[in-house]
Specification:
The protein is mostly helical and about 170 residues long. Helices cover about 80% and strands about 0% of the residues. The protein is built from five helices and no strands. α1 packs antiparallel against α3.
Amino acid sequence: MDKNASVPGSRQLNLKKSFKRALRSLLSSCSDEEFRKAFPKFTDSEKNRLRQLFIQIITSAHQGLEEEFESIMLQTQAGTALDAAEDLIEAYNLDPLFAEETTIGEVVDNLAEEKKNEVNRLRRRLEEAEEQNQKIKAELEALHKEKQDMAAAELLLQTLRTTNSCYSSQP
């Protein structure tokens, strides 16, 4: 697919559209009613002036953020990279949803295979975690038994000391 460098590809356009939609929804999330409720002690004319100032600030911020986004896109050459990726995908038919030979059934089969592989991988991780859990339990049991043995040895030692002190104190 031969394109001019100035004509952005669909992936680049989609990225820009997504950014603008996200920005618009973030910057316009405060309704007039919500804004007025935020300033209950102000008069209506003051609220109107504040609202106009708020709109000017939001508009300016919106423009500034869009310009900054475009600047970053140019500096990082993200658009060029997206266009190159799009060209490679088209050239090698790497996108299974858009390849001419790919059917919905193949996409479903590929997705099902990926999910089976993921389930198997998760199952192996679960088994490893269970094995690790069993090892930890065995170590805890050994430590608990060792603690009991130490307590029994300490009791025996105390008994021996008591017995020994009784014999040594007798004339």
